Amino acid sequence: MVDTTMRAEERETMPAILRGWRRKCPNCGSGPMLKGYLKVRDDCSVCREELHHQRADDGPAYLTILIVGHLMAPLLLFVFEMWRPEPLVLITIFSIGTVGLSLYLLPRLKGAMIGYQWARQMNGFGKSG
Fold first, then answer.
1. TM spans, by residue (predicted)?
2. Contacts of 35 (CB under 8 A, 6+ apart)
3. Residue 30 lies in a domain
4. How far is CA 73 from CA 8, 16, 33, 66, 86, in A?
5. What does the pLDDT read at residue 34?
6. Mean pLDDT, the chain, as a whole number?
């Protein structure tokens, strides 16, 4: 039997994830979610939504490693097979690319993960009051 009752406050998942990707509050989309590089604010400075409930932990780091690895490994093989650059050139370019992409993705994936948690009312985000 399927429960047809709606939650007290139904939240759309995709807009919350996209707001989180932009590092904005998943509720209003205008207040900053992060202070600094990865530190999550306790609450939104615009709508006062509490954000301290988040439990992103190591998830964004794992996703970052997964994405960067799946992008850079085939690209490394392709570049090596096509142009055969010197090893020092290859490692320099791909080291810089890997670090740059990782630094770009990490706060965005953290924001998206917090947006998902907020939309699904996980870890205390669903409590009223």
1. 61-82, 88-106
2. 41
3. yes
4. 45, 31, 32, 11, 17
5. 96
6. 92
